[in-house]
Automatic annotation (TrEMBL):
Pfam families given in the database record: ABC_tran, OB_MalK
Compartments, record wording: Cell membrane
Matches recorded under InterPro entries: AAA+_ATPase, ABC_transporter-like_ATP-bd, ABC_transporter-like_CS, ABC_transpr_MalK-like, ABC_transpr_MalK/UgpC-like, Mo/tungstate-bd_C_term_dom, NA-bd_OB-fold, OB_MalK-like
One of the GO biological process terms: carbohydrate transport
Topology term for the membrane: Peripheral membrane protein
CDD domains: ABC_MalK_N (cd03301)
ATP-binding keyword on record: yes
GO CC terms in record: ATP-binding cassette (ABC) transporter complex, substrate-binding subunit-containing
Domain ABC transporter span(s) in chain numbering: 4-240
MF terms in GO: ABC-type transporter activity; ATP binding; ATP hydrolysis activity
Domain of life of the source: Archaea
Protein name: ABC-type maltdextrin transport system, ATPase component
Keywords: ATP-binding, Nucleotide-binding, Transport
Amino acid sequence: MAEVKLIGVWKQFGNFTAVKDMNLEIKHGEFMILLGPSGCGKTTTLRMIAGLEEPTKGQIYIGDKLVADPEKGILAPPKDRDIAMVFQSYALYPHMTVYDNIAFPLKLRKVPKQEIDRHVREVAEMLGLTELLKRKPRELSGGQRQRVALGRAIVRKPQVFLMDEPLSNLDAKLRVKMRAELKRLQRQLGVTTIYVTHDQVEAMTMGDRIAVINQGVLQQIGTPDEVYDRPANTFVGSFIGSPPMNFIDASIVEDERGVWADFGEFRLKLLDDQGEVLREKNLIGKEAIFGIRPEDIYDAMFAQIKIPGENMTRAMVEIIENLGSEKIVHLRVGDITFLGAFRSESKVKEGQEVDVVFDMRKAHVFDKGSGKAVF
Ligand SMILES: Nc1ncnc2c1ncn2[C@@H]1O[C@H](COP(=O)(O)OP(=O)(O)OP(=O)(O)O)[C@@H](O)[C@H]1O
Ligand SMILES: [Mg+2]
């Protein structure tokens, strides 16, 4: 086990900056997710931690050891970093049995045969591969192959696991199963893990903490609840959550009744403490972005918190996506469109109007220019 630290790490490919001033501290035994869209610099960051890529600037520590610092000319090779990597394309040796595939890293290290046997069987047991040890990779399902690749990484008992989208080759159902298995395994082993994905569901369900990255820049780092409930900016708000958070352009106005988000077609009254924050930040009379998640908008029939004229409006139902467990309802008020996630009992019909209620406790306001969250 070890902690991993990145201090002011940059990666430049020619003129292109793939990673900008990355600061990350991953704790002992933590399951850290690097999450972001394609090309945001996740793999590059992981490769720098692994020692497969040299940072242009900054320091990387694994445990107490400084493994990369270009200014001091320090660059420890991968084999000296005590890490194990699992990649999206987990090439197993096709001519070797499952047993030999898992044993391979130990053989390379010239571990005594008996000890290899003990380790391989222990890992196989943990991964449910005991019955399959004599098979060749082609005789395995995708999920079983994935577990062999994991076994090969685990058997070395490294200080740190680095995983780059290891589940992306699996079908949806298997992915869900492996997600839970991987998480359980990581808990059991207690090995510090850095896991790269662009799948926000994977990030939310597996991570102790999530580092959200966009265009090489760390946007926010926090527990799944923190990044979901208190996104630092509109990017995080829209990237995490499906369907994404609604954003509506608003004017922040104040009258004798309180502070409001005014959309022209309708307005919503902000809670007293929210109004206070907006007043303190001098945002009264300014343009802003109002944000609310679809699940925080209710069919008024099922809302216990409706206050007509304050948190409610009438909206046109344009399209309903019925997911069985809930209904994603495309709503329109004049030119303003947004999504509501209604419970399945809702009787809304396409082409009809419905009263919708906004849970203002869950409302967010973002700065119009920077996209940064006010709350
Ligand atoms: N060796 C390289 N030379 C030049 N540019 C590179 C190199 N490696 C990566 N890049 C660029 O750096 C950026 C980040 O790449 P990276 O592979 O880290 O993205 P990623 O977040 O892992 O994306 P994905 O989800 O698609 O795997 C991309 O724009 C990519 O084109
Ligand atoms: Mg990648």
